[in-house]
Amino acid sequence: MQMGMKGTVKKIISLLMSLFLTSILTFTAFQVIPGDSALIALGMDATEEQLEEYREEMGLNKSLPMRFARWLKGALKGDFGYSSQYQMQMKVSTLIGDRLTVTLWLAALSFCIIVLVSFPLGILNARNRSGTLDSLITLVTHFFMAVPPFFLGMIITLLFGIILKWFTPGNYVSPEEDFQRFLRFMIFPAIAVAVPKIAMLVKLLRSSLLREMGLDYVRTAKGKGMTDTSILYRHILKNALIPVITFLAMILADILAGTILVEQVFNLPGLGRLLVSSIANRDYAVVQAIVLYIASVVIVINFLVDLLYQWIDPRLRKD
Amino acid sequence: MGKNGGSTYDFNFILGLLLTSLVLFIVFLGFFYTPYDPNKMEAALINKPPSLSHPLGTDNFGRDILSRVMKGAGTTYVIAAAIVCIGASLGILVGALTGYFGGWFDEVVMRLNDVLTSFPSILLALVFVSLFGPGSYNIVFALGLLFVPSYARLVRGEFIVLKERDFVNNAKLMGAGSLRIIFVHILPNTRRVLLPSLLIGFNNAVLAEAGLSYLGLGVQPPDASLGRMLSEAQGYLLDSPWYALAPGLMIVLTVLGFSLVSGGLENGQG
Question: B230 lies in a domain?
Fold first, then answer.
């Protein structure tokens, strides 16, 4: 138990280190941009006094570490300064706050779809071990992995939106307006993000389950007279879950990345579209904030998964 | 699994080889010959469905889609190949040196690797593009660098195992230098894992190019690339769905073919 505590503290320290390192990288990366950011913000016809005042206000005259400290202090309070791509002075935090809900819903929905579809399929497939099925699953998996989510999104728009008219393409409804219609619209982009991952997860689950089935403890359980079904659910599934959880954690990052492209296809007002339009408009404050945000989410998720492992698999608590 | 599995994998491997030869043939042909000029606009031929003279139809500027897919796939392939070249050669170098020598250098490089891989790669590519601007050269450079960690990790792992083997000790006894052992004795032995990963890397590069160009940050108009075409086709999904299908299917066939071949190689075929 004491060992476990020590390990957890160590992990928390390394989590904080990673987050700090990420923020340094995110900040310094944007310092290489050529040009005077005061001039960019105020425009060509600003006077020298105005420029100087702006630099003073934004702390641009200070040294790099000082500016970083200032930025980080703001970031910790959720203050990332002002966006430059809109006519009105818009706070980066408000801009992101609105978009965040959409992206989080999209990511959560696709994650649910992935888990709900993959587990039954994977378990079903593992009970039937034949070479032909193996090779068929391999083919299907490779096929779905080969379809880029944004192309799948276009196919879905074409099939379900234009031909079958199950939803109106481009007609996004915000959750505050009508939650049911929002969900009914979001399910389609969520499927586009989910499908390639479902294919991968089914294949992984099957091979992981099949490997566990060949181990000694399964034979022992069988010898004691347990049925195949109860062995599967009470013993095998729990052990086979470990690589699956690693995979699920890995795809969370992929899902977030996938939403960037799929939001574009379905015209969703999410973080991804904000990121792309900020890049196109050289709105660096927003780009910086979104990058830091997504990277932090990924790091924190990896940390939580690490803790989850120890809870699931006591063998790992030793170290 | 086992013997039984081996014989059935054959089918996928052969299918992969067929698909790969097909797409490579189309692309190589496209370097020398296309039915029409891929960038020539024709007002009379705007958004025409597939016909005998234009087998894949025409786009919103009346350009022949087949010609554009042939040329565009070529652009995508060249970019993807360049990305893999940069990523793999630097990755192999880093992986070989860290794996063979170990020590503090290894420690530092691997921690850096960890931080880099914790970012979703498209996010890093987007950061890079936002710093240096869009365009094909920039995405080749950006994605090429992003591919370094995965190759470095793979090659490092192989080197750590292989450097303890007898043939390395023999070579040392015969007086071979470190560099000779690394590149002449050990490196050729990593090809069993390296070759499939090069094919997968090519796939990932094709998908990454398509994604970035789709967002308008990669290949710039009027040049065609598969991602660029998809992004242009998006607005015409209602009137001319064939426009999006052609480049999209080309991506799917390419990635499917290469990944089936890579899977076959991993299972000891070929």
Answer: yes
Nearest Cα of chain B lies from the Cα of A176 at a distance, in angstroms, of 28
Q: Which residues contact B208 (CB under 8 A, 6 or more apart)?
A: B83, B121, B122, B125, B139, B143
- Is B7 a residue whose pLDDT tops 80? no
- Quote the domain boundaries for residue A154: 99-282
Chains A, B: CB contacts under 8 A, how many? 136
Reported pTM:
0.84
ipTM of the complex: 0.84
Tell me the shortest Cα–Cα distance from B13 to chain A, in angstroms: 10
Q: Would you put residue A128 in left (φ > 0), alpha (ψ -120 to 50) or beta?
A: beta
Residue of A nearest to B218 (CA): A280
Shortest CA distance to A146 belongs to which of B196, B202, B136? B202
Give chain B's domain count: 1
Read off the pLDDT of residues A89-143 as tens digits, 9 standing for 90 and up.
Answer: 778 888 888 888 889 899 999 999 999 999 888 888 777 767 777 778 888 888 9
Model confidence over B151-174: pLDDT tens digits?
998 999 888 888 888 898 888 888
In a domain, A33, yes or no: no
Cβ neighbourhood burial of A7 (10 Å; 0-12, 13-18, 19+): middle
Residue A299 is assigned to a structural domain of this protein: no
* Domains in chain A, number: 1
- Establish if A141 belongs to a structural domain: yes
Q: How confident is the model at residue A36 (pLDDT cuts 50, 70, 90)?
A: low
CB contact under 8 A, B234 and A142: no
